[in-house]
Amino acid sequence: MIKSTVKGRRVLVLSTAIAITMTQLQAQTIPTDQTLPLVKYVKPIIGTERMGHTFPGATVPFGAVQLSPETDTIPYSVDGKYVPDVYKYCAGYQYDDATIVGFAHTHFNGTGHSDLGDFLIMPTVGKLQLNPGTAADPASGFRSRFSHTTEQAAANYYKVDLEDYHIKAELTTTTRVGMHKYTFPATDSAHIILDMMYNLYNYPGKDVWTYLRIINDSTVVGYRQTNGWAKNRTEYFAMQFSKPFKSYGYKNYSTTEPYIGFWRRFDMRKNFPLIQGHDIRAYFDFDAKAGESIEIKMALSPVSYQGALDNMQEEARGWDFNQIKNAGQLAWEKELEKVKIETLNDSDKVNFYTAMYHSFINPTIYMDVDGNYKGLDQQIHNANDSHFTNYTTFSLWDTHRALHPLFTLLQPKRAGDMVESMLKHFDQSIIHMLPVWSTYANEGWCMTGYHAVSVIADAIAKNINGFDQQKALQAVITTATNPLYDNIPAYEKYGYIPDSLSGTSVSTTLEYAYDDWCIAQMAKKLGNDSIYEQFSKRAMNYKNVYDPSIGYMRPKDKNGVFRKNFDPLETSGEGFIEGNAWNYTLYVPHDPKGLIQLTGGDKAFIKRLDALFTTYLPDKYFEHTEDITRDGLIGNYVHGNEPSHHIAYLYNWTSEPWKTQSTVRMILKSQYHNGPDGLGGNDDTGQMSAWYIFSALGFYPVAPGSDLYNLGSPLVKSATIQLENGKTFAIKVVGQSEQNVYVSKVELDGKTLSDKTISQSDITSGGNLTFYMSNKHKK
Amino acid sequence: MIKSTVKGRRVLVLSTAIAITMTQLQAQTIPTDQTLPLVKYVKPIIGTERMGHTFPGATVPFGAVQLSPETDTIPYSVDGKYVPDVYKYCAGYQYDDATIVGFAHTHFNGTGHSDLGDFLIMPTVGKLQLNPGTAADPASGFRSRFSHTTEQAAANYYKVDLEDYHIKAELTTTTRVGMHKYTFPATDSAHIILDMMYNLYNYPGKDVWTYLRIINDSTVVGYRQTNGWAKNRTEYFAMQFSKPFKSYGYKNYSTTEPYIGFWRRFDMRKNFPLIQGHDIRAYFDFDAKAGESIEIKMALSPVSYQGALDNMQEEARGWDFNQIKNAGQLAWEKELEKVKIETLNDSDKVNFYTAMYHSFINPTIYMDVDGNYKGLDQQIHNANDSHFTNYTTFSLWDTHRALHPLFTLLQPKRAGDMVESMLKHFDQSIIHMLPVWSTYANEGWCMTGYHAVSVIADAIAKNINGFDQQKALQAVITTATNPLYDNIPAYEKYGYIPDSLSGTSVSTTLEYAYDDWCIAQMAKKLGNDSIYEQFSKRAMNYKNVYDPSIGYMRPKDKNGVFRKNFDPLETSGEGFIEGNAWNYTLYVPHDPKGLIQLTGGDKAFIKRLDALFTTYLPDKYFEHTEDITRDGLIGNYVHGNEPSHHIAYLYNWTSEPWKTQSTVRMILKSQYHNGPDGLGGNDDTGQMSAWYIFSALGFYPVAPGSDLYNLGSPLVKSATIQLENGKTFAIKVVGQSEQNVYVSKVELDGKTLSDKTISQSDITSGGNLTFYMSNKHKK
């Protein structure tokens, strides 16, 4: 733990928060350029085109501030209100767009639903315009055209020229502070617009309340409350300019605020230091000499604007943009150094380290430097009491598969804190549920299952510390037996969810069965036999929705009759969420052996898998399912969405395990590229990237909740994993080449592995793993 | 101070808060009926008809909860939205109405603008209706008809039968908790409606956000944020039922909340324990046997729902309605005992003790039992650090005249706390201003002047403790020289506010001049000569707006030319706020002698005063000025509104002081009655009532900021003032009768007074004041 002083008070900054404090900055040798050995391979632009939904802007690892440009985001309607685009602009940026409306401080990385986009800042020159204008006619508002030729997106640094204003914009961050540097032409009418109406996932009425308090000629504090995907979210801020503004003002776009105070006593419209209302755009005016830079620091807090001021004071006291940038890049370098790889070419390194980068963006730190955070119960709590760092943004349907297992390996301290964050969420939940899709002190109930139990069981299987294991067991049991949640009583009664009760009865049954297996594993390790037995039995419920007459999982009604008129290729409306029966029939990660038996044995299973990767899926089967696109398809296998992520590894349970090896290598090569369109689907807060990292290293967690990884075919030539416990785990790949995708032998510390697995402790106790590669598979 | 334990924590309950704790309850002998000797004279119904704007419901002295019925309040528009009635329903109740829509927990007493009305509760029986319905057709909604024959309104107790449902409703309170008792007929469909959309001063968009959390089968917590007269106000609550509800639900009337969570995972519409949105009405269902009572406790907090729970735990642990009621009535009795009077008849006692009651309602306590409160800066502060009780609702344009001076006499500890509350407001004000019209952590800038300085100067003149005097001096100077506020720079430059800059240039100039005199007095006492001189000079600015050619104060432009086409009878648009030149010309409370000289000397002044009280003012001169009505007029003198309240006492500076005596007695008799229409104008949070108390006792603070009271003609036969310092001050009136309105002699401790004044210290040092009455005036 790092103890430091904020405004005369002793505060505790937990080491896991990786707060970049000035003290730390000064104690380290900060490189002065952007050529750090591994950071240079990070290309945040990857995934920003079409489906990746990543953002190119600046952030430190797991930063609370993720500061990034917003492009055409929002078609602007005639009455001056934004129109939402829920899906396309999840990260605020689309590479093919031509304009930037400004730079906002909060983003999801790679999600399939949008929110956030807090506190849009846009510098302009000339006549003040408070409307963003339209992409078709950028001059109609404050937005500006830009070009990728002047754009630079690196870890913790983003730069672009705003062509309409001849302004160079640069961004960097600390954990809780965004720093802007705008270099102006000579002008007596420079403006900084603070658009508090800007939102990702915007619509009339989303802005619940906005409050700005101008505390001196260069400092503004306040907050905004929004009713979005996070239904009841308040983000606080403190904003500081490097130079006093000469005047300021705002416009309130709301039409439902009859009482505006008495303007005969004050003119509150200009230079009045308290601004509040439903829909506010503020502006600050400056003079600028040619080439003069105006810098802005924007600190965030989940708790109060005083908290934001304290965060700024602690993390970013001065005005040294490069120092902040370099400190953040050094923090990234340290994270990337946890896996040092050699590859056949630099392109693979770019994919790998960008995947590392994208894996370490969400969940984000959600607490002030003094440990205060807002809980799901809308009350203020302090994390220091429980000695953890509070995280938010858990996209668990996606991330329980590989991202959280990756954290158990590369971020064990954070992994423990994330479990503790989930247990606090459970404590604060009015219905006593672990998170499903939670963000910023809100639960959105997005997607299905209760996959927090997978994350927790996996952490326990892998001896992650930092939370109370028995309490965790109670929390997963309570969650999995919640009578209010998504047909659990029916699931308990019938052993599956009847078709008539749910549009996703089959996939939810399958997910519950896997989650139940996780609970069983956890109970076993913690010595609770009756829970182990109860949930082991529930874990077999997947069998109840399998229809042997057609060979697929299939919706079934209360009386046990399968649904008529069923199409196993269709991804929507057939009892599954975001997927078809082809893919979901393979979703039994915890019991591949049982699944093979159920579906006709080894040969039939191999044939099924082969067909999955080769059967062409016509557009009509997925064009209405947003998360599935042609980009992310390989045959009928969907790599661009999560439910299939384990499938390539299932060949390992058959008599043709080499097909896991060739298929994994094929996916690594076809679904990940260095370009803006380099991701075949939503990154989903790092799940797509985590799949890449594991698979490139040669192993993958098919069933989190077990401590075993399944072996595939490594992409790297070698890798060294630096563990938090001080040990290292080295991966050597003998005979690696583009053609040599088959593994003829694997040795752990010189002993040939007879199984297709290694365990977490094999890795964490340090050692050497050697793959011997060949262009031919073993028999 | 009383120390007590809340949930295992030691908390400090300041004695001034008069929190009715269970500990106190148990330690006292609680009378079991409502016949306490003085409480029985309190008739909260006085002022509830037409213009008084008082409420008849239950409250303890200065209670944070003021729980009262809401009558026809709201014409209901076709689209399901309320239409605001800003003025008529300031207190939520009008005596002439025929229906009750429910019972709400916060009210202003006697104001001229509405807000509050938090958390309307309405019990019903039969088919659930979530709309209030219309007064014309009560059956169209949940409202009920009622009759005054079943109504009882006493100090801290209100009872009425809800005829449409055969429910008896009873209300009582502690400082922070409202208690409801509803006695039902036999039914299997009793409902308690919790209407979170109900507001006083309502309009679409006023409800910013509503949050309900059902924490068990009989407890609900939450909050509501509103954008009303207080622009950014959040009130938190904790609500407990004496009996578990059998089911519950809500309706969200908002049309701008696209994301509602996923109903396929939960049905959130019924029996789901988290309810939130813009516009919420919730309901709770019960069975009831004939004559069964369901009780409800509703605790409020300015800080958090946990604060509300703690408040409930501290103040109202059990379910003994009578104990709570009796404890509150005992608290009232103790307040009323501070002035024991004998009168010619009971009617005067009713007026007097009801005036005492109405004077001790606002300002209200605005902090939790643990000292936490929300500041004007929207941050949470703790009052224990500064050892004060935080108060809110300062209607200072009204109350600086007599209500706050009354507090210096009868509530000196509270008076100090109120000044400290104002100084905290100053600290928290972004523009460094003392309160103008502040309420619930908001400043509304209503009305004119900076009259907090009058209250503070008066407190210093009268040796009130509990705040830092030098800091107070800085605060009043900063306030009075604020370059942003209402034309202060022009006032400083010209010595008056030019007509072109303000619609109320003359009255504001006059008010500033008086306030400046207050600052001068305060500076003098605190030894700051230069400030004394500076503000003594400013205090003479009243002379700058007097036009000797017509004999009235009159708007004047920058070049010194008086406005043409000026009508001194007109109350609107002639340079004055809520008053005409006739009344405002007499508004120089700090320098009557100078005013007499300015306006032509003694005889002319007497003639002017005589004319004021006798000149008939036709309707056309005031019918567009809400706060002035025929009820409150005596000739052209307006007792129903504040600017004239000192005028009757001005005869004391002339050669015919007996006219003060007869006029005061005439006003006491004509403007105050025992009936619902017993107040001739808005009580204005107690100012009308405080005028009555002082005048009935025989003296009045013409110029707060001085420690002198001006003598009038007492209404009482005798009075004993029990002072907080333990001393008593006795008033005897020899020869009192309805006819003997003239004072032939006054003795203080046996010595005849040569002057027409007594000082605060004359009173607070204890002693005897004897008036000798006659039916003829002297000379």
Please tag this protein with its features.
Beta-galactosidase, Chain A, domain 5; 9-stranded antiparallel β-sheet; homodimer; 18 helices; 6-stranded mixed β-sheet; 779 residues; alpha+beta
Describe the structure.
2 copies of one chain form a homodimer. With 779 residues, chain A is α+β, with helices and mostly antiparallel strands. The first copy, chain A, has a domain at 17-335: Beta-galactosidase, Chain A, domain 5. Helices cover 24% and strands 23% of the residues of chain A. The first copy, chain A, contains 18 helices and 39 strands. In chain A, β8 (152-154) and β9 (157-162) form a beta hairpin. The first copy, chain A, is globular and about 80 Å long. The interface between A and B is large, with 55 and 55 residues. Chains A, B: One of its GO terms (cellular component) is cytosol. Chains A, B: Residues 1-27 form the signal peptide.
